[in-house]
Structures are given as C-alpha cells and as structure tokens.
Amino acid sequence: MISLRLTAERHHDRRLKREVWRTFDPADRTDRLADRFRALEALDESRLPPRADVPRRVGDEGEIVTYVREGTVAYGDSTGHAGVIQAGEFQRMITAQGARHSEANASRVDWAHVFQLRMRCSTPELEPGREQKRFSAAERRGGLCVVASPDGRAGSLRLGQDTCIYSALLEPGQHVVHELAPTHAAWLHVVHGEVTLDDFVLVTGDGAGVITERAVSLTARADSEILLFDVAKRNVRGP
Question: Which pLDDT value is given to residue 204?
C-alpha cells in the first residue's frame, strides 16, 4: 500500500514572504493522513527571508530533527543554549516541557531553506538536549546515507525512538532500494527533483507512505534529493 501526499496537497502558509509547506497536519482532522504515521507528527518545509523565524506549532514539544538545506539558522533556548546550523547540517533536539526555543534565519541578506521533522517522544525519560552533525554531499551522493538512528550507527544522530532517517543525492538513472523489516513502514519525501516509486512519478515536494511493501524501490529521473523515514509499524495506522 502506498499513500501519496502531492506537493499541491500540502498545507501552504505564506506570511511576510515566509513560506511554509506542511506535509502532515495533526490539527486538521479532515486530513486523510493526519495521525497515519503516528511517530511523525509534523514534516515542515520553510523558505525564510533574512532574519525570519522558523514557524512554531502549538504544543511544539518532542523530538525535532532540523535539516538546513540552504543558508544558516541560528537557534537558542531558555536554558541558555545557542548556536547555528549551517547548510548541510542536521540537528536533533529533545525539548523540555515548558522550555522555550527558537530558530531563525541568521543572515541579513540571504534566504534559508529549512526542513523540520517533529516526532513524539517514545519515553518520558529522554533527557532534553541537542546533537548536531554535518553530512557532506559526497556522503549522501549515489545512495542512502543514514543521518539519524536509534543507535547512532555510522556516526548518525542518535534518536530516542525506533526510527531511521536517510538522505540521498541522486543523479538521473540511479536506482535505490531500501528493504523494510516486516515491522516497519516508510515515508519518502522528494526534497528536489523527480523520482519514480513503483508506477508513481514524484516531483519536488511530493511525499509517499509505503506501508505494506517489503522494500522502498525508486529511480531518479533527474538530479534529485530525497529524505526517507523508516518507522516502526506500531507507530503507523492502517487504511
């Protein structure tokens, strides 16, 4: 079973030139994908003008992974932690209940292109904190590079739940197969480009949930960038 969320179906919010596209919107009970992938509460893509804030959501607590595709993002929180996330870097953050945190485009002149994934914390014992790493284009070119995992494998960020996040930069004709354990499903997001997934053609901004298949098998039709989320099925609701 494959569930599509085409880019035109994403919730699009534009304010003061800042643009946000939301793949999942748990607050919208008419959304057919709301809460389908329970662990993945939000997947937001933001294009931020100089100095603009990354938009917040109500109840924005949990485990958050931020990927800066272009530009530089400055962050800070009420515990005194502050820093920047550069293009090509991924950051994993666990927020404390009641703590305030913010991210914003650090540049006075350039735009920033940012992706944020918010996941529910699987256990209340997870300690608040941040971890940040850069994954070069060379590491991600031609195949799936694990950028986050429960065990921190291959130098990836360490997640507090049974989810793995992969990033890939593909050239036209390159084929990628990711096998899924019987207890796992996947969500594919096309950051840029065009790929085929089974009989479907997905372009920039499109996403697809792969729930009952044994593997995710895709081929790039153009220079493409993808994100792939491998999620335990106990966190996925069927049709």
Answer: 98
